[in-house]
Amino acid sequence: MIPPPTVASAPSVWRDGAWRPGHRLVAEETPIALSYNRLSHAVMFATPADLADFALGFSLAEGIVDHPGQIGRLDIVTPGEGVELRMTIDHALMARLETRRRRLAGATGCGLCGLESLDAAMRPPPRVGAAPDWSAKAIEAAIAVLRPHQVLGRETHATHAAAFWTEAEGLVALREDVGRHNALDKLRGALAVRGVDVSAGIVALSSRISVELVQKAAGMGAGLVVAVSAPTALALRTAKAAGITIAAVARDDGFELYRP
């Protein structure tokens, strides 16, 4: 069964110095595998709506077909986790696709480079250790360090940032990139070189919280991720499975807290 594009969620909201119950509609994201003649080609996380349009648009954008009539059939199936868009194309197009696959280096900034199966996309996240019971002040301080230190973002208005903050040191490291996944990978590398215990601090992101970012945060051992925008429903489910607390929509006036 394909999940609905939005689902209701009830975070604890910190606003104007006080906790209160909250309500938010969070966008759904689902791993979607695209296959041609039953050969898996790519997996993308996407909103599970207008899937026939997505199948055709992706095929045209990637140069797999040249016009809609070249897709002989499209079946939308739900084999378990996620959705598979099964398309049929003729032998000449399939030969062209297989040649292209041998040259494919991976798409930039997608967070799913090289993945061809739903199982790989939906691998269970590692469980993180018990995180400190962070105060609202600490969460506000962690997100506040982002903007003043986004040098490339300030100059270009075209990059994301990922930062690590602790109460003892404040900002430990911040990395920027045009891709939010790349920024977090850069941060992980910087912390690994220094031997930093990520469970002892807060990971702060300048983006929305998608499932790929939660998976990466779990791999780092982060117990709390704070971000300026909202999470997706799948990100929240993945965070719960990993034991990660999410502080989302973190702005000057507060944030929303999603506990595992």
TrEMBL record:
Job description of the protein = Required for formate dehydrogenase (FDH) activity. Acts as a sulfur carrier protein that transfers sulfur from IscS to the molybdenum cofactor prior to its insertion into FDH.
Q: What is its main location?
A: cytoplasm
- State the name under which the record lists this protein: Sulfur carrier protein FdhD
Q: Which GO terms describe its molecular function?
A: sulfur carrier activity; sulfurtransferase activity
Where found? Cytoplasm
Sorted alphabetically, the Gene Ontology BP terms of this entry are:
Mo-molybdopterin cofactor biosynthetic process
This protein's GO cellular component annotations are:
cytoplasm
What's in the keyword line of the UniProt record?
Cytoplasm, Molybdenum cofactor biosynthesis, Transferase
Q: Which family does it belong to?
A: Belongs to the FdhD family.
Task: Please indicate if the UniProt record lists Cytoplasm as a keyword.
Answer: yes
Active-site feature positions: C110
Q: Which InterPro entries match?
A: Cytidine_deaminase-like, FdhD
